[in-house]
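Replying to the earlier thread about multi-chain prediction with a worked example.

Input:
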Amino acid sequence: MSRKIITFDMIKKLRDFSDGKNLFTSFYLSTVPERGDFVERALEMLRKARKEPGNYSEEERNFIEEDLKSIEDFVKNTLVHQVKDPDPYIVKGVAIFSSKQGGIFQVYHLPNPLRERIVIDYSPFIRPLTLLLDEYKRYLVVVVDYKKARFYEMFMGAIVDTGKIVDVNQKARLISPPARLKRKYDYKKAEHFLKVGEVLDILMQAKEIDLVIIGSPDRIKDELYLYLPFRIRQRIAGSFHADPDEKLDSILEKARKVEEEFEREEEKMIVEELKDRLKTGQLAVSGLKDTLDALMHNQVQTLIVESGYEVSGVRCPVCGFLGTDEEICPVCGTKTLKVQDIIDDAIEEAIEQGASVEHVINKDLIRPLGHIGALLRFEGS
Ligand SMILES: [Zn+2]
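Result:
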C-alpha cells in the first residue's frame, strides 16, 4: 500500500519547499462516513475558493486554478477508491498540498479527521499536521526469539521507515543443547536478551518512543521480561505471538491489535477517572459548555472527547474565544462567528495549550457525560 504516513521529517521537507514566492493550496478533508458525502463537501469547498478573488496576479490566479483542479481530480478519481479500501484504520481524512508553481502535489492520509478547510497562501498550511503528530503515541515493536530480534517503529497505525530498523542476530546455535553445553547455552541466551534490552533502550531514547510491544513465540516473552530494565518493562503496552522471520504485514496487523486494545483500556481508565472526579466534584468538568469554559481558562490537563463527535459553536475572530452560542465575545466584546464544528477548534486549542487529548472510540462510555469532558490542572475561580 503506497500510503504516506506523516512524519516530522516530511513536514520539515514540506516547509522547506516554501520560499515565500510560490503559492500553495492546502486542503484538509475528513472522509469518515458520519460526516456525509465527502466528495460533495470537497466540491463545495473548492467552489467557494474559486469565488474568493484574493489579491493575486493573473498568472498566480492561473496557478491557483490548476491547484484546485488537481485537488478536485484527486478527490473524485483517487480518494473515493482509497477510502473504500477495507482498512479504515488509516484513512479518516486527507491533507493535500498542491503548488503548481512550486511543482508539488502531496497527499497525506490521516488516521483522524482534522478540521476541514482550504488555505491558499505563500507557504503550506501545516500546523494541523504538526498538532496531529504531537497527539500520537510512538510504538516500538520488537519481535524476538532465542536467536534473533527485529525492531520496528510503529506510528499512526503503520510501520514507519518501511521495515526493520535494527536486527540483532546472535550467531549462537540455540536449539536444544546437550546437557554438557546447557550452561553455555543459558549464558548465550542471557547475552542475547540483554542485548535486546540494550537496543530497546537506545532506540526508545533516539526515536522518542512512548511504548513497546513485544512479539515472540510462546514462553520467550516471560523470559525476556526478566532481562529488561524496569523503565522498559513499565512501558510495555502488550504482546503478541510471532516469529522474527514473519512477514511485515502480519506483524503490523498483530501489533495494531495490541495497540488498539491498549488504547481502549486506556480510554476506559481515563473516563473512569473523569467519572470519579465528577462524583467528588474535583478537578473535572463534563459537557460542552463547562469544558469549553475550562479550556478558555487554561485549566485543561486532558481533554476527553467522543471520537467523531461534532457540534456547532462560536469562535471570536479577534481573541480566539470558543463558545457554544455567545453572540458577543465575553472576553473582548467582538461579534463571534458561527463555526460548524467547535470540537475541532477545541482539540486544536487543547493541543496548543500543551494539554493531552483522548479520543474515546467507545461512544457509550462518554456519551452519558455529554460527549465531552476534561480533567483539570486546577480549579476555576
Ligand atoms: Zn474575543
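The radius of gyration is 24 Å.

Feel free to reuse this layout for your own posts.
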